[in-house]
């Protein structure tokens, strides 16, 4: 792709190409000290939980849901109103239309805002949006809205499709969709060319619309990779629901309500494993290996093949390690061991959120601003439709590396501590009393390993 280099491009656009994660240069603290502190935090947390947390406290499919405070009737009526729901759908359609203009009519340049809207606003931004607002993608999803409009035009019910969604599919379609996205972003050698990215987005829209027509809105709740991702992250928000009413409750109570469906472990494995691979591929060790591979093979495809294999190993490795750790946890449990990974998969969500926050923090803030500036000129004609074209990116966070370092390490550690709490609460729900502590040791060891590995990758990038 032709690159428009110069002042107009700036550091932020170059960051899009390199994913702008930042690593050791951002973290002016000792990695050994950070890892030691994180491991100590997990160990202390587990010890305190073992002594003071003896009975389940959060709702799940095994315990009744009594927590939370319902919103006042006035607020509930606003959220249930037709005007509110339509307004959210319009927001999603406007975003979809603006991105479509940039994708179809924009130029094949890195300054095209479609790349930032696709990789930054959509993919990274879905995490903070869901943490703050709940399952936001479900509310604004343009594919849901288009399916609704098509159903109304044909006189059918968007909730019901031609077929019932097979229960055995679970979240497997979403896991495949998520892997397809991270493959495009991290491995595909032309991920910053407009044609392939535009094609990926078009295929996504087509598959979602066909799936919605065949299986109704259940398709979006189970198979839309972005809706499943948003809904999982939203379980760490304070917004829950009961009998159709919105309530405010503990994020840990929300987290425990994640249903253990087929493919859930695959979803969390792809999300966590791909983020780990994104750090690993920026490390000097992997870069040197790829350079040597290219030199030996004298082929461009050698590095691409190595990246493909590494991404599969990271995602598959996370899934296998988590499955092994949770199945070993089930010593003496009445549950079948093969079902335990799904029962504990909810505890991976805080780890994913913490590591994504650490990994993409400066990227999201800085490149997100740059995208807003460029979005004012979607066709690269010099226009300023949104009035943001003259704005400048604020690099304040990158100018304070110690603060950035502390935020990144805190994100990883806090995510793992919350995961330990969630896993402990589920363990004392599932495991017999004689194994409620010893049965958790394999899972604790796994989380300590994830913490140490995540921090080392964060520093190595």
From TrEMBL:
Ligase listed as a keyword: no
Keyword Transmembrane applies: yes
Endpoints of the signal sequence: none
Transmembrane domains' residue ranges: 34-53, 86-106, 118-137, 169-191, 197-216, 309-332, 344-365, 403-423, 443-460
UniProtKB keywords: Membrane, Transmembrane, Transmembrane helix
The protein's name in its UniProt record: Fenitrothion hydrolase
């Amino acid at each position: 792709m032709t690159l428009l280099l110069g002042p107009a491009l700036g550091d932020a656009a170059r960051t899009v190409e390199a994913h702008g994660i930042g690593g050791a240069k951002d973290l002016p603290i000792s990695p050994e000290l950070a890892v030691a502190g994180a491991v100590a935090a997990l160990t202390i947390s587990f010890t305190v939980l073992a002594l003071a947390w003896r009975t389940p406290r959060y709702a799940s499919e095994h315990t009744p849901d009594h927590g939370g405070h319902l919103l006042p009737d006035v607020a509930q009526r606003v959220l249930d109103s037709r005007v509110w729901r339509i307004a959210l759908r319009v927001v999603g359609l406007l975003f979809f239309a603006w991105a479509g203009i940039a994708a179809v009519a924009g130029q094949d340049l890195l300054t095209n805002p479609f790349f930032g809207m696709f990789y930054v606003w959509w993919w990274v931004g879905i995490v903070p949006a869901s943490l703050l607002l709940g399952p936001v993608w479900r509310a604004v999803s343009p594919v849901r809205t288009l399916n609704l409009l098509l159903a109304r035009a044909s006189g059918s019910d968007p909730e019901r499709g031609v077929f019932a969604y097979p229960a055995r599919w679970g979240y497997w379609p979403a896991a495949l969709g998520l892997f397809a996205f991270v493959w495009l972003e991290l491995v595909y050698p032309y991920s910053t060319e407009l044609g392939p990215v535009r094609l990926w987005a078009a295929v996504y829209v087509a598959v979602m619309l066909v799936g919605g027509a065949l299986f109704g809105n259940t398709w979006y709740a189970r198979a839309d990779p972005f809706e499943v991702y948003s809904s999982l992250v939203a379980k760490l928000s304070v917004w829950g629901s009961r009998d159709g009413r919105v309530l405010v409750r503990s994020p840990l109570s929300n987290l425990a309500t994640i249903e253990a469906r087929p493919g859930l472990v695959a979803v969390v494995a792809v999300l966590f494993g791909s983020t780990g691979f994104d750090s690993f591929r920026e490390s000097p060790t992997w870069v040197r290996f790829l350079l040597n591979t290219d030199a030996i093979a004298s082929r461009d495809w050698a590095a691409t093949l190595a990246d493909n294999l590494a991404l599969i190993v990271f995602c598959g490795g996370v899934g296998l390690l988590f499955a092994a750790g949770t199945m070993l946890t089930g010593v003496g449990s009445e549950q079948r061991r093969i079902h335990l990974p799904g029962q504990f998969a909810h505890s991976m969500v805080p780890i994913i959120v913490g590591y994504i926050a650490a990994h993409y923090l400066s990227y999201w803030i800085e490149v997100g601003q740059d995208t807003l500036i460029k979005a004012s000129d979607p066709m690269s004609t010099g226009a300023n439709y949104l009035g943001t074209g003259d704005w400048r990116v604020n690099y304040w966070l990158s100018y304070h590396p110690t603060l950035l370092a502390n935020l990144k390490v805190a994100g990883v550690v806090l995510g793992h501590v919350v995961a330990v709490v969630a896993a402990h609460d589920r363990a004392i729900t599932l495991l017999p009393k004689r194994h409620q502590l010893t049965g958790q040791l394999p899972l604790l060891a796994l989380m300590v390993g994830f913490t140490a590995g995540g921090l080392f990758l964060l520093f190595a990038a």
